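Below is a filled-in request sheet from our internal design queue. Each sheet records the structural input a requester submitted and the sequence that came back. We keep these sheets so that new team members can see what a complete request looks like end to end.

REQUESTER: design group, bay 2
PRIORITY: normal
MODE: inverse folding
CHAIN LENGTH: 195
BACKBONE (tokenized):
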């Protein structure tokens, strides 16, 4: 059975505006622009026959997922496996402070180059680990869920790593963007951004 997954990044958050590394922090909330981006995502998804939204439990993703779910009138569930990358000791740091503190490590961690997939901050996780947990969740929903059209409210790194695992090169994923993945006969396909 073919299954469609629409994975969207949360709307602009307070930490996005402040230039802070978010990771697992849970005190970053949607800005007014972020709320607008969530409503825009809902408009883009309203004709996709979405049956359920599965969200990261972090506030910024939960807020975005809640706005979309309410707008398109589907249930909202939560799954820790869609949480943003754990950045360990870099959590909540301003980008410039992280660059000063970690230098080359920070540059490598920010890179989309697959050779740095195992780089991580102390007490944090690598991008490869993020890819593995995301696809563990996606494969479970694809194989076991009764739903055929599922939306996921997630984060920038979780989204970019899902694409990287499928060999899709991408720059930073803008807030509110939606990526369409399709699962068919044990194979994942990238069908582009929803616009």
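RETURNED SEQUENCE:
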């Amino acid at each position: 059975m073919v299954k469609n997954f629409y994975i969207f990044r949360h709307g602009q958050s307070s930490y996005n505006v402040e230039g802070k590394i978010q990771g697992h922090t849970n005190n970053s909330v949607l800005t007014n622009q972020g709320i607008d981006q969530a409503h825009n995502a809902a408009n883009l998804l309203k004709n996709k026959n979405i049956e359920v939204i599965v969200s990261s439990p972090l506030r910024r993703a939960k807020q975005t997922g809640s706005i979309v779910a309410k707008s398109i009138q589907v249930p909202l569930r939560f799954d820790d496996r869609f949480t943003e990358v754990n950045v360990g000791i870099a959590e909540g740091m301003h980008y410039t402070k992280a660059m000063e503190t970690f230098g080359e490590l920070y540059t490598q961690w920010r890179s989309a180059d697959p050779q740095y997939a195992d780089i991580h901050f102390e007490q944090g996780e690598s991008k490869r680990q993020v890819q593995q947990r995301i696809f563990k969740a996606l494969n479970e929903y694809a194989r076991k869920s009764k739903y055929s059209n599922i939306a996921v409210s997630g984060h920038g790194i979780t989204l970019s790593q899902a694409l990287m695992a499928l060999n899709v090169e991408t720059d930073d994923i803008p807030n509110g963007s939606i990526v369409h993945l399709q699962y068919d006969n044990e194979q994942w396909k990238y069908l582009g951004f929803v616009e």
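SHEET NOTES:
- The radius of gyration is 16 Å.
- The chain has seven helices and six strands.
FILED BY: M.R.
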